[in-house]
């Protein structure tokens, strides 16, 4: 809750610090709004240590192979608000995001008999395992980004910029889907999901990027930026973990 209050305090501070009338308004222009979408594949994904899962089991004629692959990416759509604060060069950005964090565990694809064993019962008299080929978790978040863009040259139809932004995201729902070797075992999906626990209720990222802009100020514009994304706090996955990804973001903007 403290993080949420701090986030909105930063947004309000930025809004009230922006010139709103007179000569400054003439220099900076008004607010722009738009829609955006982005995708962030993470490149340093590690599989979490989960005591109730035995990794991929492959038994060949002459050796035994044990392997599980992890995936981690996010995608989002949302609304964007932008406001110039220093001439044509410095722009304040904020908005509202719907962020979907998709992570997974997959058994080795090279063997038709590849599977993972899930320990769903460990009573004193009986140990019960289920076989699965993959798990996928989707965690749904709503977030607010706050950032700055810097244009090194004055406004032109074609321009480039650098930016930095912090996103704080709040969990609204999540689901783990299990692909069982035997489809009749799907009735245990909720039981398996409970074993993984919940992803973080709040997570934040730092995004740094360079981008290009097509369109002039006070006209419809398109921006595209690419850059690294770093997880600052919170863990939005119960299956895998990662720290660094690369974000590709497309934004359509119109003057208000």
Describe the protein in words.
The chain has 256 residues and is mostly beta strands. The protein has a single domain (2-47, 69-106, 132-255), classed as Beta Barrel (Porin), CATH 2.40.160.20. 12% of the residues lie in helices and 60% in strands. It has helices spanning 2-17, 22-28, 189-196; strands at 31-41, 46-47, 53-54, 57-59, 64-66, 68-86, 90-107, 116-123, 126-150, 158-180, 202-214, 221-233, 240-241, 244-255. The strands form three sheets. It has an eight-stranded antiparallel barrel. Strands 2-13 form a two-stranded antiparallel ribbon. Strand 8 and strand 9 (126-150) form a beta hairpin. Keywords: Signal. Residues 1-22 form the signal peptide. This is Outer membrane protein beta-barrel domain-containing protein.
Helical stretch tally: 3
Portion in helices: 10-25%
Question: CATH top level?
Answer: Mainly Beta
Structural category: mainly beta
End-to-end separation in angstroms reads 32 Å
Give the biggest sheet: 8 strands, antiparallel, barrel
User: Which segments are poorly predicted (pLDDT under 50) over 5 or more consecutive residues?
Assistant: 2-28, 59-65
Cα-based radius of gyration, to the nearest Å: 23 Å
């Amino acid at each position: 809750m403290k993080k949420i209050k701090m986030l909105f305090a930063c947004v309000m501070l930025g809004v009230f610090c922006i010139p709103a009338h007179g000569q400054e308004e003439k220099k900076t222009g008004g607010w722009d709004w738009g829609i955006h979408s982005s995708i962030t594949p993470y490149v340093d994904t590690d599989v979490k240590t989960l005591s109730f899962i035995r990794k991929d089991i492959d038994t060949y004629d002459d050796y035994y192979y044990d392997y599980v692959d992890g995936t981690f990416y996010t995608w989002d759509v949302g609304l964007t608000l932008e406001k110039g604060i220093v001439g044509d060069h410095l722009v304040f950005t904020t908005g509202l995001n719907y962020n979907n964090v998709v992570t997974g565990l997959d058994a080795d694809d090279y063997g038709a008999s590849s599977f993972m064993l899930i320990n769903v019962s460990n009573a004193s008299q009986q140990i019960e395992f289920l076989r699965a080929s993959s798990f996928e978790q989707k965690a749904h978040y709503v977030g607010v980004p706050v950032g700055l863009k810097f244009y090194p040259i004055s406004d032109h139809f074609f321009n480039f910029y650098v930016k930095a932004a912090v996103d704080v995201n709040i969990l609204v729902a999540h689901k783990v889907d299990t692909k069982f070797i035997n489809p009749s075992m799907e009735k245990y999906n909720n039981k398996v999901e409970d074993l993984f626990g919940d992803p973080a209720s709040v997570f934040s990222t730092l995004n740094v990027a360079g981008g290009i802009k097509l369109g002039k100020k006070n006209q419809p514009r398109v921006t595209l930026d690419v850059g690294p994304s770093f997880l600052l706090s919170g863990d939005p996955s119960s299956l895998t973990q990662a720290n660094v990804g690369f974000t590709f973001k497309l934004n359509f903007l119109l003057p208000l």
